[in-house]
Amino acid sequence: MSTDHLQTNHFQTKHISVKRYLPDSSAEPYWQQYELPVDDSTSLLDALNHIKEQLDSTLSYRWSCRMAICGSCGVMVNGIPKLGCKTFLRDYEGEIRIEPLSHFPVQRDLVVDMEIFLEHLAAVKPYLIDDNPVKPYDPKAPETYQQSPEQLARYKQFANCINCGLCYSACPQFGLNPEFLGPAALTLAHRYNLDSRDHGTKQRMTELNRHEGVWSCTFVGFCSKVCPKHVDPAAAVNQSKVESAKHTLIALFKG
Amino acid sequence: MDKSTLQRLPPLKRTWWLKHRFFKLYMVREATVLPLVFFILCLLAGMISLLQGPDSWQGWVAFMGAPIVLLLNLLALIASLFHAATFFVLFPRVMPLRIAGRSLPDQAIVAGQWAGVLVVALLFLWLFGRA
Q: CA-CA distance, A110 to A30, in Å (whole number)?
C-alpha cells in the first residue's frame, strides 16, 4: 500500500442539510444547512460531532463507539439508511441530506423512538432456551455446552447483528405495518433456531408463523442491501418461511 | 423512555416505491405477473375453443396470430425470463443446499436452474418439432 492512501488530504468545504425537529419550539420539522471543513477521512459522525461542538450545540443525535459495533448512529443519508460512523463524506458530491431513521417516531432531531423494534426483538425470545436438556444439570459435575465449528458455521452470519435498526428503515413492509416483527427480530429468531445448543424453536415458531411473523415479508431485499454487518436478514427471514411451512405441515398431520 | 411517548406512525403512502431505484426494480419484478396473466388467459381460451370444435379453434389460432397478441405474449416471455433471472439468484439464499455436509456454491445453484430451463425448453422444442 502506498503512503498516499494513509495521508489525510483533499481538504474542502461541504454542505450538509439536517432535518431538525425541536418539539419544544416548533411543531413542524425543518431543514437546516451547515457548512463544514472535511477531508478524505471525515465520517458523517465526525461531521455531526463537528456541528455539535463548533457550530450548533442544540443538535441532537445518538452515537457511542464510532466503529460500527454499537449500532447507535443510524440515520438516513439522501434517503438511504446508513451508520454515521461507516459513511464517509468523500463518497458524496453535491447535496447531502441527513434525516432521522424512517418508519420510527422522531423524538428530537435525529433521535428516534426504537421502542417498537425492542418489543419485536423481545417477542421472538432471542436467547438460548434449554427447556429440554439432554442431561439434567448436575452441580457436582457441570458440563459446558459444546459446539463444533461446523455447528457454529450454520448460524454465525446471522449472529453478527448489532441491532442498529437500519433494516427496519429499509423495509417497506414494516413501514406499511409496524406490527410486522421485521428483519432483525426474525433474523435473530432464525439464528437461535439454527443453534445446536437451543431447544426453543417450538416457542419461537408460534410468533414466526403469524401473518405479522415471517409471512409479511415479500422479499424486497433492501434490508440486506443496507445491513452494515452483511447479516443478510432477507435470507434469514425467507429461510424461516421454509421452516414455518414445514412446521405447519407437520403440525397438520400430528393433529 | 416513558411508555406514554410510545406512538405509532401513519402507514406509508401508496407511492412509497417511487423513492428509490431499488424499490422500482422490486415493483417491476412483481409486475411481471401482469403479462403472464394475459398469457394464461390465452391458453385457457385455447382449451375452451378446442372443446367447442374446429371453427372455434380456427378463430383462436387467428386471434393468437394478431400482431398485438403476439406482442403481448412476447412481453410475457421477456417478463418471465426477467422474473426467472431475479428469482434464481434469490433461491440459494432461501434454500442453501448442502451435499455431504458441504454447502453448494451459489453460482452452481443458479447455473443448475438455468440448465433446468434449457432442458425443459429443448424437450418442448423436440415435442413440437415432431408434431
A: 12
Report DSSP letters for B13-41, one per residue: PTTGGGS-HHHHHHHHHHHTHHHHHHHHH
Number of structural domains chain B divides into: 2
Instruction: Nearest by CB to B17, from A172, A239, A242: name it.
Output: A172
Residue pLDDT, tens place only, B43-83: 999 999 999 999 999 999 999 999 999 999 999 999 999 99
Q: What is the pTM of this model?
A: 0.89
- Does B2 fall in a domain? no
Residue B129 CA to residue B117 CA, distance in Å, equals: 18
Beta strands in A39-176, from DSSP E residues, in sequence order: 74-77, 80-83, 96-99, 106-108, 111-112
Same domain? B111 vs B128: yes
Is beta strand A111-112 parallel, antiparallel or unpaired with respect to B102-103? Answer: unpaired
Mark whether B82 and B104 lie in a shared domain.
no
Residue in B12, B22, B94 closest to A235 by CB: B94
Q: Which amino acid is at A211?
A: H
User: Are A225 and B22 within 8 A, CB to CB?
Assistant: yes
pLDDT of A12 strictly over 70: yes
Indicate whether B31 and B81 sit together in one domain.
yes
Beta strands in A152-249 (DSSP E): none
Residue range(s) defining the domain that contains residue B111: 96-131
Q: What is the largest CA-CA distance in chain B?
A: 76
Is there a single domain that holds both residue B66 and residue B114?
Answer: no
Residues B104 and B52 in one domain: no
CA distance linking residue A108 with residue A119, whole number of Å:
21
